[in-house]
Amino acid sequence: MKRWLLTSVLFLLFPGGAPDLHAQEAAPPRALAQGNADDPALLTPSDYGRWERLESFALSPDGGWLSYRVRREDGEGRLHLRKVDADSLIAVPRGSSPQFSPDGDWIAFSFALPPEEEAELRSQGRPVSRTLGLVEVDADRREDVAGVAEYRFSPDSRYLAMARTRGGGGGEDRGRDLVLRELATGGEISFGNVADFRWRPGDGGSLLAFVVDSRDGVGNGVRLYDPVEGRIRVLHSGEGRFGDLVWDGGGEALAVVEEGLEEEDSETQRQVWAWTELDAEDPKEHHLDPARHPHVPEGMRISGERGLEWASGSRSLFLGLQPFETAEPEEGAAPEDVSHEEEPSEGVEEVREAHLPGTLGGASDRTQDPPEVEIWHTRDLEPVPRQRVQDRWESGRARLSVWHVVEDTFIPLEAEGSLVPRVEARGTLVLDVDASPYREERMFGPAYQDVYVVEVESGHREQALEGVEHFFGMSSGGRYLLYLQGDDYWVFDRQAGDHRNLTGGLPGEFVDRDNDHTVEQKPPFGMAGWASDDEWVLAYDRYDLWKLHPDGSGGERLTTGAEARTRHRVVYLAENQEGLNLEEGIFLVTEEEETKAMGYALLREGEPPISLFQAHRRLSRFSRADDGGRVAFVAEAFHIPPNVYVMEPESEEARQVTHLNEFQDEYLWGRAELLGYQTEWGDSLQAALFLPAGYQEGERFPTLVFPYERRSGTLHEYHIPSEREPYNPTVWTQRGYAVLAPDILYRPRNPGRSAVVALEAAVDAAVAAGGVDPDRVGLVGHSWGGYQTTFALTQTDRFQAGMAGAPLTNLISMYLSFYWSTGDPDARIFETSQARMEVPWWEDYSSYVANSPVHHIETLNTPLLMAFGTEDGAVDFHQGVEFYNAARRAGRDVVLLVYEGEGHSLARTPNRIDLHRRILEWFDHYLKGEPARPWITEGVPYRDQRDALGPGGGRFRR
Q: What is the pTM of this model?
């Protein structure tokens, strides 16, 4: 242990004070960030490692401190602990997992050894441990405690529990030493072989529950320790292994899972122990053994995949069930209790006969190894690839059930066909949906579902809604279910048993009629949330927030966004927030449609929203201190790194607290502009234009057009320079390219031509605005953006080069394929999603051909670089193969990069860097005239690249 004053680790980061965001910022900040640097320079790849990413952040309960973790592009992570009201911080290399004591007087965190030291320990077979850092805020004192794996403050902030790292040498011990420290005095007490520990929540003092787990089982069990009285109580002892300790929210009840010793022919058996009336001298003990409980379905066991969860009132415990599965016998061994002559159980032979073929002229041979074959039938409501994915999901899924602890009754809450159920209404109801009756319709049409409500107390299950497509869940108290019917919001009142239209007489439009997807029911703009007492629900139209009354009496518009074309959306500032309260006020984030400027506002009952500030920034990741005071969020722009800002609830000034990448002033930077343009079809659209670093008025640069549906909303996104990102706008602007990110509006059955019309108009607007050289424009996109790139190059010679990552190239063959990651047919994507083709290809063959790049290979006059992973689960790798072979036969200039074993986006860092560099080399040659690498103009013989491909030499398998 080491102690020292924090004076040595506290320092002023910005002596001149932190910059602020002020209310109603009128114009974007200065684009070229030169700061005090005398000679700002362009970035090179050797500079990228300096840049930091903001990973996570949190305010202390009282809002006095901010913890945030950053990671440098060169790999090292660092934890920062910063006092909000002062320019001082604690910087912890390789730090993580910060915790604040509830009173805000202490901060604990963990940090690791340098990587080289960890590697040395592992090579010696020694345990690798982390160190706990403990800071007493008011005393400016820090202490480091080595070998701490886990730690938690008590709710009253008097104690810190620290679980030590387990020792080395292998073994199956889950237990470790637990040290309990009284923070005021430094006094400690230790307990051995502790596997899990939890403080009693709420205002119940400092009661600690922990489980003991030793290798031989001696002394195992559940203990309660009161550090104030120095008293320890044994709640239960046994030879099993205990874990998954969980208190109820009020600290009135405790539960734990006991795992029995594994038998040779079975899985681990789990039981649950629970205790109520914990403040009594003799708490009530309750026990659930699923093998012996009369209400637990036969053949079911308690799942280890779903943790225990108390309902409010500490009388009921939610848990998961899974089928009991005996272990497979070893090859060549027969089950101990079954003779070789015993017949298979009923039904098994029928299934086997359905799977295996018959024989011609003789008895079938069931002694040989079974064939490795899947049977795909057109009558399958779900295709076998989808069934395979579903089976993997189902096999690990826990079925929601409830154990009423005091009454000792057990109720399964899910029915066959249920999707993932949700516990609602403060634990009194379960909301469940069943899509199985609509499997045939869902194959290629709307995703209908039936909605059920299950009463937790009785298990009574009742169908509440039938065949709804857009369902928005249950009100806070459980009385109402909200759904869309036609173009209106409706509720089903469970208490009255009737359905009510909430928006039919209101002037707002609550569905997005401009949505260009080819679906019969246009999607709604969404709902914001319910009042905690079910008195109203908030829903959105295009710009505004509406308060709707579930009694059907109407509603009122709470904001005036339509007049200024400014969207208003509710910000949830706390996790698991139950209901909205207009009396206390709710916070809104706003965004101007025309300028993309965002803001922050406060809305209270009966008052217009108070605009706290507005800025030409992107605002995100809002959170709030536990005491309901300060609010924190992230603000960024194309040229301004993401940083955390903190503000008082009703202040008009947000103060910058973090200062990432301030050295950026040493480098030239680009600037972002928003362009408006109109297509030849009369559509008014927008595009974000990012001009190169060091741009000077009047200069024209080579330009990369980067499409994917609507991209003007990326105007204020910041991108740290990185070679790990193949498509990095910051790198492109640093390399002297302008980047154009346009919007595209699609016409039904014409996605390709829609893209071409929008792209050409966007380029015209960018050329007219200045900065873009019309004779040096390239097109680059990935996935659907890759499709738009590939198709556009077959339709126009406007672009001098193109790059397409994982593009669709043949709409007909792709329609007939699968989205392998989910097992779903691609038909839905083509008819009602991105492709917007409305019908299958045999009903409009000409439109599918007209919009397929491969069917226009003869008009491809532009060099195209294409990249694919052989295991792409979204766009089949053979889409690349088809286009490559067509281009090869037609004598077109196409290079296909094949990344062995990679998916839709490259995962391996060397592959990502490789693609990043090849994209730059490709466009540097075709747009800047730099000498071409041999792989661009000549290709590389297989034998020359074989050694770099590793084992297998680049062979791939589907």
A: 0.90
